[in-house]
Amino acid sequence: MGMSVPKSCFGYPLSIFFIVVNEFCERFSYYGMRALLILYFQRFLGWNDNLGTAIYHTFVALCYLTPILGALIADSWLGKFKTIVSLSIVYTIGQVVIAVSSINDLTDFNHDGTPDSISVHVALSMIGLVLIALGTGGIKPCVSAFGGDQFEEGQEKQRNRFFSIFYLAINAGSLLSTIITPMLRVQVCGIHSKQACYPLAFGVPAALMAVSLIVFVIGSGMYKKVQPQGNIMSKVARCIGFAIKNRIRHRSKKFPKREHWLDWASEKYDDRLISQIKMVTRVMFLYIPLPMFWALFDQQGSRWTLQATTMSGKIGIIEIQPDQMQTVNAILIVIMVPIVDAVVYPLIAKCGLNFTSLKKMTVGMFLASMAFVAAAIVQVEIDKTLPVFPKGNEVQIKVLNIGDSNMTVSFPGTTETYNQMSQPKDFMTFNVDNLSINISSTGSPVTPVTHNFESGHRHTLLVWAPSNYQVVKDGLNQKPEKGRNGIRFVNAFGESFNVTMDGEVYNNVSSHNASEYLFFSSGVKSFTINSPEIPQQCGKEFKTSYLGFGSAFTYVITRKSDGCPEAKAFEDISPNTVSMALQIPQYFLLTCGEVVFSVTGLEFSYSQAPSNMKSVLQAGWLLTVAVGNIIVLIVAGAGQFSEQWAEYVLFAALLLVVCVIFAIMARFYTYINPAEVEAQFDKDDKEDYLEKSNPYAKLDSVSQTQM
């Protein structure tokens, strides 16, 4: 590379604009593809929830483990530029392969709309995912470090700003793709049979990845490329190994102590390498507590989304579905990064506080732990509104009188009278072991209810004549998933009928019985009743009341005197009342934590790394994210707390403890400037070289200082 002065724009090297655009396209491509995966596994490949989720998490973990590989290739063999280009090609191929795997007509030879050999599609999509994991993981540590390389000595301020812009690009890419990709999936396409357009939805990310690669290559002439320096990692490993062996060999008292355990390698390795390894090990040591932050951060996709499903998405005039709350994080990042960078930090500096990188990261951890305290408070508010479901040995029973006369039902300890079609009391809770129920009405004998009640479940007792009853197991022992609403129909007609509601069909609801629950999103739904019993002139179209979030209703269909059907709604589970807007404070706190923690971490990892190990430390940083992911999987798998808020408090407490430990570790860290340290070595090497070539030069300078 010649000594040409890099082109600049607003005081930044022009080359970083290409790098930022490249990162934006790459993240758009990655998150766009990731947003589809779970649905693709379930609906196209036909996998169940557990298998889909397991493969999905394995893929995400793989994407954070492959950076080590990319960093090794970049720092010791190909250099960052060639690594990014070659792995981007692998990545693009992976995206194309997964798009091809979702083409239904690939193996659909009989044109019936389903693939004939699903295994071909599974094999292709797995190959695609492995290539993508190699690509995205491999280029991740290189792109950020390569961007940092573009700055000259003395451009620290611009370089820090670059890492902020870089982080902004990541989040803008992910935000746009999570909004746009689901829109593409809803389109229909296909040669022989029309269905959800996965090839288009996967194809757009693939095309963007190709754009990303082209943009990056166009800037090729402008980049400042740092040459890789031999196989650095094996040298590091051998040097550390030698130091430990040598230390153990000289463990007796008669050998003088050395300042640092790595100094035991000085017999065999030069001081420059030893000082570079010291830089890396000191930073790596600081990284040990960091995965705890990511363990909390990654729960906004899982736990917090589940929390949103027990809340109401009606905020003012807009309605949000629970899984859309995650975009709040990306939206806030796009707003917060510029504010923090241009307003908050300068203000802190004006107050004369030295807000160092490690202090910022400590504050970030504190904010994240406060976010979980906020989540716990919201959870306590939600718990007050949640219905009580039967636990252990309990059963819950509710009576619906769908006949023409009043009924009296006696339970252990209480007797209730039910008028025809009256709004029943809430569910009553009994112990399954001593449960005896009798039905009676004036002038008729008592009928005992003989039914094997299943403990831990809700049941509905339908009665319509003194000796006629039916017990239905509800099947709902929690709030409906994803904030949807459960609806079932009870048939009080003489024969069975069908109900169609919002595209879903309840087939053959038999007489004096209840259908299963089907689930619908919020809004007003219409339903149609089809039965040979209904006279021609009757209206068969009905509308529900407004359905909110997380409710359940039973619609009893009775016959009016003119033979026409009439629908009456009974509430089984009341809709969610706590607004999703209450989640905004916890998202805000977590996002502020992320801005001061994550952006700073990227920049700190770069600035404290020796020139030949920049990518390796970026990969070390990404490794903390991977370990955080793994912690979540272990904790979520290990045990369910009986109270969700307690789990949030536990996480907040754990992070607080880690935060204190990290603050103490940070007190003992001294910041270095690797470039200066290396320049000093260069100077010493030069002097040694001069001394060897001219032994008198050194003497001369010594005698002059003595005079």
Automatic annotation (TrEMBL):
Membrane-topology annotation of the record: Multi-pass membrane protein
Keyword line: Cell membrane, Glycoprotein, Membrane, Peptide transport, Protein transport, Symport, Transmembrane, Transmembrane helix, Transport
Organism listed in the record: Bison bison bison
GO molecular function, one term: tripeptide transmembrane transporter activity
TM segment ranges: 12-33, 53-72, 84-103, 118-139, 160-180, 200-223, 279-297, 330-349, 361-380, 587-607, 619-639, 645-666
Quaternary structure and partners: Interacts (via extracellular domain region) with trypsin.
GO CC entries: apical plasma membrane; brush border
Domain of life of the native organism: Eukaryota
Name the UniProt record assigns to this protein: Solute carrier family 15 member 1
NCBIfam families: 2A1704 (TIGR00926)
Primary role: Electrogenic proton-coupled amino-acid transporter that transports oligopeptides of 2 to 4 amino acids with a preference for dipeptides. Transports neutral and monovalently charged peptides with a proton to peptide stoichiometry of 1:1 or 2:1. Primarily responsible for the absorption of dietary di- and tripeptides from the small intestinal lumen. Mediates transepithelial transport of muramyl and N-formylated bacterial dipeptides contributing to recognition of pathogenic bacteria by the mucosal immune system.
Pfam families the UniProt entry points to: PTR2 (PF00854)
PROSITE patterns for this protein: PTR2_1, PTR2_2
Lineage: Eukaryota, Metazoa, Chordata, Craniata, Vertebrata
Keyword hit for Transport: yes
Family: Belongs to the major facilitator superfamily. Proton-dependent oligopeptide transporter (POT/PTR) (TC 2.A.17) family.
Keyword set includes Transport: yes
